[in-house]
Specification:
Number of helices: 20
Order of helices and strands: HHHHHHHHHHHHHHHHHHHH
Distance between the termini: 59 Å
CATH class of the largest domain: Mainly Alpha
CATH architecture of the largest domain: Up-down Bundle
Low-confidence stretches: 470-481
CATH topology of the largest domain: Na+/H+ antiporter like fold
Mean pLDDT: 79
Largest sheet: none
Shape: elongated
C-alpha cells in the first residue's frame, strides 16, 4: 500500500510535467491515463477502491474546502438554479435514465437501473475547474457549477442508497424515501453547521487561553472535515452536506481570524494548497487505476457484445446531456437563471456550456463500487460488473467531451469583458478598504481615536465613490502628524492584504497591479 501511494504521488508530479509540454490535454485526463498505465504494467500493483474510505478521505475535505471558498452571496443569489440542478435534475435523471437503462438492458433490474442513474447524476466540480484552467467560463456559470456540485453529491448518493436498498430487498416506499431524503439532507446541513460552530468556539477559547500556536490551530482545521463527516454519518444524516455546511460556517470564522492570528492565514493557505493538490491528483490517479480491471471484466466476457455495451454507454451519456440541456432550457425560459431577471434569457451557448460542464467524476465510480455483491436472498447482485463498467465509460466520455467542447465554446482568458474586469477591480478595492477599516477599529484607543475616525471617514467616502464608479478618486488632505501616522498604518494593512491574497491565489497579478497603481496615484 505504501508503495502504491508513493508511486501515485510521483504520478501526480509527472502529470503536471506532461501537461507543461502538452497543455491542450487537461491534467485530469493525463492523471487517469497514468493511473491506467500503472495498473496495466505487470508489477503486481492493484488497489481496491473502498467507497466509504474514499468518501471520507477525499470527498469530505475537498467539499469542505469548496464550502470555505464559495461566495455565500453568489450561493444565495443562485439558490434557485442550484436547487433545480442539484435536486430537481437529479430525480428527473433517476426516473428518465433509470427507465431507459432498464428498457435497453432488461437484465438490469429497474431498482438497479435507478441506482445506476442516481450515481451518474452528481457532477464533479474538481474536474470542471481543472478542465476550465486554460479557458474562461462565465463567472456566474462557474459559481452555478460549484454550487451544484456542493449539493448534488448528497442528493445523488441518497437516491442511490434507496435504489440499492430496493434492489437488494425488493421493497420500496416513495413516501418513506421522500421523508428520509429530507431528514438526511436537512439533518446533514444542521449537524455540520452546529459542529462547525462548536469547533470555532473551541478555537476561540484556545486563543483566549493564550494558545495561539499556528501549527496546533492548523491541525484542528485539517481534522475538522473528517470529524464533521464521521459524526454526521454516525447520526444517520448526510456526511457530505455536513462537510459543506461546516466549510461555509468556518469561512465566517476565518475572516475574523485574519486579524486575531495573521500568520495563521498564510500557514493555512500554504498547507491547504498542498493538501488539495495531492487529493485532487490522487482522485484521478485512483480512477485510472480502477478502469483497466473494470473494463477487462466486461470486454473479456464472451456473454457481452463489446460494441453493444459501448453503444449502451454512449446512449446513456447522450441522454444525460440532452436531459440536462432541456432541463436548463425549460427553467431558463420560464424564470430566473444564473441570478438574472426573467427577461434576460441566457443564450443557447450558455445553456450548452452548462450541459457539457456537468462532468462526472470519481464520486460516480466510488458509488458504483459500493453496490453490494449479494442480494438479500443470497444470490449474486445481477449485472454488477456491467453497471460499474457503464459508470466508468460515462465518466470518460464526459471528461473527453468537456475537454474538447469547452475550449471551442468558451472565450479565451485574454478576451475578458472590459466592464467585468473594471467591476471586479472596484469590488476588490472596496474589500481592501473594508479590511483596513476593520483593522483600524482594533487599533483604536483613547489617544488616537480622533485620527482613526478621520481616516475611517476618508475610507468610507472613497468606498462610496468607487461604488458610484467615480474615477476621479482623491484622498482628502492630511494635516496632523498623528493622523498621517494612522494613514501610513492603514496603507500598510492594505498592501499586506493584497499581498496575502496574491500569494494564496485569490487574486491574480493583474488585480494586484491595479491596486498598487491606484495606491501610488492616490498618494
Amino acid at each position: 500500500m505504501f508503495i502504491i501511494v508513493l508511486i501515485s504521488l510521483v504520478l501526480i508530479g509527472v502529470s503536471n510535467v506532461v501537461n507543461r509540454f502538452v497543455p491542450f490535454i487537461p491534467v485530469p485526463l493525463i492523471q487517469i491515463a497514468l493511473g491506467a498505465c500503472l495498473a496495466l504494467v505487470p508489477l503486481g500493483i492493484h488497489l481496491e477502491l473502498e467507497p466509504e474510505l474514499f468518501f471520507i478521505l477525499f470527498i469530505a475535505p475537498l467539499l469542505y474546502n469548496d464550502g470555505k471558498h464559495t461566495s455565500r452571496n453568489e450561493l444565495w443569489r443562485l439558490r434557485a438554479p442550484i436547487l433545480l440542478l442539484a435536486v430537481g435534475l437529479v430525480f428527473v435523471t433517476v426516473c428518465v435514465v433509470g427507465y431507459t437503462i432498464h428498457w435497453m438492458i432488461p437484465s438490469i433490474s429497474l431498482p438497479a437501473a435507478f441506482g445506476l442513474a442516481a450515481i451518474l447524476s452528481p457532477t464533479d466540480a474538481v474536474a470542471v475547474s481543472a478542465l476550465a484552467g486554460r479557458i474562461h467560463l462565465p463567472k456566474s456559470l462557474m459559481r452555478l457549477l460549484e454550487g451544484e456540485a456542493l449539493m448534488n453529491d448528497a442528493s445523488g448518493l441518497v437516491a442511490f442508497k434507496f435504489a440499492m436498498a430496493a434492489a437488494v430487498t425488493g421493497v420500496f416506499s416513495l413516501p418513506k424515501a421522500s421523508f428520509s431524503f429530507i431528514v438526511i439532507a436537512v439533518g446533514g446541513l444542521l449537524v455540520g453547521a452546529m459542529l462547525a460552530f462548536i469547533i470555532a468556539g473551541i478555537r476561540h477559547l484556545l486563543r483566549r487561553a493564550g494558545l495561539e500556536d499556528e501549527t496546533m490551530h492548523m491541525l484542528l482545521q485539517i481534522l475538522t472535515p473528517f470529524l464533521l463527516y464521521i459524526i454526521a454519518e454516525k447520526l444517520g444524516v448526510s456526511g457530505i452536506l455536513a462537510a459543506v455546511a461546516g466549510g461555509l460556517v468556518h469561512a465566517f470564522e476565518n475572516e475574523r481570524m485574519d486579524y486575531a492570528m495573521p500568520n495563521l492565514k498564510t500557514v493555512s493557505n500554504n498547507t491547504w494548497s498542498v493538501i488539495l493538490f495531492i487529493l485532487n491528483g490522487l482522485v484521478f490517479v485512483i480512477l485510472g487505476l480502477q478502469i483497466p480491471k473494470v473494463s477487462q471484466v466486461i470486454l473479456d466476457d464472451p456473454l457481452f457484445n463489446n460494441y453493444r455495451v459501448i453503444g449502451y454507454a454512449l446512449i446513456i451519456f447522450v441522454l444525460l446531456l440532452v436531459l440536462r440541456f432541456l432541463w436548463t432550457l425549460m427553467f431558463a425560459r420560464s424564470g430566473q437563471w444564473l441570478g438574472k431577471k426573467s427577461q434576460d434569457v441566457p443564450s443557447i451557448k450558455i445553456l450548452v456550456l452548462t450541459s457539457v460542464s456537468g462532468v462526472r467524476g470519481a464520486v460516480t465510480l466510488a458509488g458504483a463500487f459500493s453496490i453490494p455483491l449479494f442480494l438479500q436472498s443470497g444470490d449474486l447482485f445481477p449485472q454488477r460488473d456491467l453497471i460499474i463498467f457503464l459508470a466508468a465509460l460515462v465518466i470518460l466520455l464526459s471528461l473527453l467531451t468537456a475537454s474538447i467542447v469547452l475550449p471551442l465554446l468558451a472565450k479565451k482568458k485574454n478576451t475578458d469583458d472590459k466592464d467585468e474586469i473594471e467591476r471586479m477591480e472596484r469590488e476588490w478595492q472596496v474589500r481592501i478598504m473594508s479590511s483596513a477599516i476593520r483593522a483600524l477599529h482594533q487599533k483604536s484607543n483613547e489617544e488616537n481615536e480622533a485620527a482613526v475616525d478621520s481616516v475611517i471617514g476618508d475610507y468610507r467616502r472613497l468606498m462610496q465613490q468607487l461604488e458610484l464608479k467615480d474615477n476621479n478618486v482623491r484622498r482628502l488632505p492630511r494635516s496632523r502628524e498623528e493622523e498621517a501616522g494612522m494613514r501610513i498604518l492603514a496603507l500598510g494593512i492594505e498592501r499586506k492584504y493584497v499581498r496575502d491574497r496574491l500569494e494564496s491565489g485569490q487574486i491574480n497579478n493583474q488585480t494586484a497591479d491595479y491596486y498598487f497603481k491606484c495606491w501610488s496615484r492616490l498618494n
